[in-house]
Design brief:
With about 90 residues, the protein is mainly alpha-helical. It has helices at about 5-40, 50-89. It comes from Amphibiibacter pelophylacis.
Length: about 90
């Protein structure tokens, strides 16, 4: 196994990580932004107000995008496992 292959696999792993985590992160970011604008407009400074909507939104996104996330990760791991004989031997 040469260094180029290690760097390529690391880059692919980070790309997969960002691709799979993006829906959850962007949803939490959007909901947090909306809640913070609401808090600024109404001057309600309650820290716990943003947690419940973020959790509900994350659960909805997981229900909608969860199967795609799992299949994407399983396909990537399957490709890595199939590469083991080529890399070692």
């Amino acid at each position: 196994m040469d260094a180029q292959l290690v760097f390529t696999l690391g880059q692919q792993a980070l790309t997969q990580l960002l691709t799979v985590a993006a829906p959850l992160l962007l949803t939490a970011l959007g909901v947090g932004l909306v809640i913070s604008i609401f808090q600024a407009a109404t001057q309600i400074n309650e820290a716990t107000l943003s947690f419940v909507p973020k959790i509900v939104a994350a659960m909805l996104v997981l229900m909608l995008v969860g199967p795609w996330m799992i299949t994407t990760l399983v396909d990537f791991i399957r490709r890595l496992l199939m590469m083991i004989p080529q890399v070692v031997g």
